[in-house]
Each structure stands twice: as C-alpha cells, then as structure tokens.
Design brief:
mainly alpha, 2 strands, two-stranded antiparallel ribbon, ABC transporter involved in vitamin B12 uptake, BtuC, single chain, globular
Length: about 400
C-alpha cells in the first residue's frame, strides 16, 4: 500500500510536469525555439492564481476560497498567453532559425520576469501602462499617417524614446509620493501561500492511506489539457495550420496560411499551458519567484526524451521521469530493497540518492545513458520534421 501511495504521488507530480512539458513541446518541439523563460511562465501562472485567490477573498470573504480555482485556471492561461504573445511579437519573431539567439533572449527575459515579480508595485505598473498606451497607440497612428519605410522607422525610434522617458518620469514621481499603497510591493521576494478550495481539501481513504483530492484534481486537469491539446492540434483549423507551417513554412505561406499569426498563436498556446501548470503547482506548496527554475530543466528533459514535438512521447517521458524521480527521492526503492539482505548494498546505493536533488542527478545520468542509444528520443520525428 505504501508503494501504491508513492506511485500515486509520483504520478501527481508527473502530471504537473506533463502540463508544463506540453507547452514546451509546442514551443521547442514545433517551433524550434529554446525558451528558457518557460519556467517563469509557470511562475506567472502561479502568481496569477494567488492574485485571483486574494481578490476573491477580499470581495467574498472566506466563502470565495471555494470558487477561486475555477476562475484562476482561465486567468492563469490568459495572463501567460498574453505575456508569451508579447515576447514573440517583440523579440522571438526576429530570431527564428537562430536557436542560440533565442536561448540568450529568453534567458534575459526570464531574469526580467523574476525581478519584476519581486519589485512590482502600483507605481511600476502604472509606468508600464503609460508606456504601452503611448508607444502602441502612437504606432497605430503612425502606420496610418506615414507611408515611407525610412520615415516610419525614424518616427518609431523617436516615439519609443519619448514613451520610455514619460513612463520613467511617471514611475519616479509616483515612487516619491507618500502614498504607501503605490509603493508597496505586490508580492516581494518572499514565498506566498495559496489555500486550496474547501472541496479539494481531504482525500479518498484507501486502507490506512489517503489519496488527496488536490492531487486527484491535478491528474484530472492534466488529462483535460492533454485531450484539449490533441484535439486542437489534430482537429481544429488553426491546429492544422500549425502542423502545416511546422512541416513546410514556405509552402504554407504560398497556400495563403498566415505564418506570422500561426507563430504568434503557437507561442501563446505553449505559454498559456505553462500558466495552467503554475496554477496546478499552487495546490502542492508555496509560490516564490524562483519556483519556475525547479521545473525548467525537467521539462526540457521530458521533451528531448519523449521525442521533439511528439505528443505521445511527451506523455510517456513525463510520467516516467516524474514518477522515477519521486520514487528515488522519497527513498521508496531503498525501503523496498532493505528487507532483502543480499540487496543491502543496492539499498545503500539508493539511500544515498534518497533526496530530491540527488534523485534528479541520478535520473539525469540515466537520461544521458538512454540518449546514447536513442538520441532522437522514445518516439523520434519522422518525415520532413526529421529532415529539417
């Protein structure tokens, strides 16, 4: 029974990893973009969930805690999808086909997001809103009034500098006011706790153990995300366009498919799935600015081991890596081997790795060994995807 509970806990942890890996499989597997900010998208989803919970609690009191998770899931998806869309439109679309450049750009963006969460307050938020309003509103006006490319380029530069200057001045002036509400950080660098809804507290008793409702909810959420992602990619019109652009961008453009819109939608979808993973993580523990760093390496390992861009491979790899890491880190393998005297040396070996960090080291070593025999993963890409 103890083994059954450990496997269940491992599967629930794997479920969060799978949701995060789905988003990365779309961004990295289908678009070829090495997105090191994916962990920070998970963090944004977690903080969006915390913000929704705080809002419901402030408006509805304690009774609001039973409803917030239903609204937090779409909010987390939308927030991270919009941030991902902004990143793709402003930076990534200029770097397609240059994976090392996307790696550096997204790594820098991840640092910006972490610092933003630590220091954001109303004055900073208002400053950013002023910049966006002036710059993007000005761009819309310039596109209608100016025709020459060189003239428009120079006007865009002047508009950017003016908008940035006004936004900085606004931020400084608001920061120097005596209003504490404007300068108090929203989250700060400390971890925050998200309370699970009442109907997700407790669990299903089986024998002497209990399977928590929160972990069952995470598993069910993962199944819904997998089915929805599969349906979208295989059955919807935009999913067909995404797969067409992935297979042959030039031919897709010749057939009238808006490749730029497909790129933006694909990146937003992958980012939104990371936000849902962040929402699920809040049910397992506290939320901090560095929470995404705990998952980014694991999600990349899942995508590579499963086969780049393969949905079934991502599912198998996530369940295998997550469950194996939990069983090793929790000491379950060592506990099972200890009663057999002949296997005591092996039990001591697994006892040495019976921590979360050491378990990841061991799993990482096993993955390296596995990739020596199957460098393309469990389900390697085929056809034009493999050739490219």
């Amino acid at each position: 029974m103890l083994l059954l509970q450990s496997v269940f806990n491992g599967i629930s942890v794997s479920s969060v990893l799978l949701i995060a890996a789905l988003g990365l499989a779309i961004i990295f597997g289908l678009m070829g973009v090495i997105n090191l900010a994916h962990g920070e998208f998970i963090m944004l989803g977690a903080y969006a969930t915390f913000a929704v919970q705080s809002g419901f609690k402030a408006v509805l009191g304690e009774s609001g805690l039973s409803l917030y998770i239903i609204f937090a899931l779409p909010v987390a998806f939308i927030v991270t999808a919009l941030v991902g869309l902004a990143l793709e439109r402003s930076v990534i679309r200029f770097l397609y086909g240059r994976p090392l450049d996307t790696l550096l750009a997204t790594w820098g963006f991840s640092l910006i997001l972490r610092q933003f969460v630590r220091s954001v307050d109303w004055s900073l938020f208002i400053g950013i809103a002023v910049f966006c309003l002036l710059f993007f509103g000005g761009l819309a006006i310039l596109r209608r009034r100016l025709d020459g490319q060189q003239t428009r380029k120079g006007a865009n530069t002047i508009l950017l500098l003016l908008s940035l200057g006004i936004a900085i001045v606004t931020r400084v002036l608001l920061g120097q006011t005596d209003a504490t509400a404007l300068t108090k950080p929203w989250f700060s660098a400390r971890n925050v706790d998200v309370t699970a809804p009442n109907w997700l507290q407790g669990g299903v008793p089986i024998g002497s153990f209990q399977f928590p409702f929160a972990r069952l909810f995470i598993i069910a959420l993962t199944i819904v995300c997998v089915v929805a992602t599969y349906w979208f990619l295989q059955r919807s019109r935009w999913g067909l366009r995404i797969r067409a652009v992935t297979q042959n961008r030039s031919m897709s453009a010749c057939l009238g498919i808006p490749t730029r819109k497909v790129d933006a939608l694909t990146f937003a979808l992958g980012s939104g799935l990371a936000g849902i993973a962040g929402c699920a993580i809040t049910l397992l523990g506290s939320v901090g600015p560095n929470i995404g760093q705990n998952y980014i390496v694991d999600t990349f390992m899942v995508v590579v081991v499963g086969g780049v861009g393969n949905l079934v491979g991502t599912i198998v790899a996530a369940l295998a890596i997550g469950t194996l890491t939990y069983l090793i880190g929790s000491g379950m393998f060592a506990l099972l081997l200890t009663p057999v005297e002949a296997l005591n040396p092996l039990a001591d070996f697994f006892t040495f790795f019976a921590t979360t960090s050491m378990a990841k080291v061991m799993v990482f070593a096993l993955i390296i060994a596995f990739l020596q025999f199957r460098p393309s993963g469990i389900f390697p890409p085929k056809g034009r995807t493999a050739e490219s």
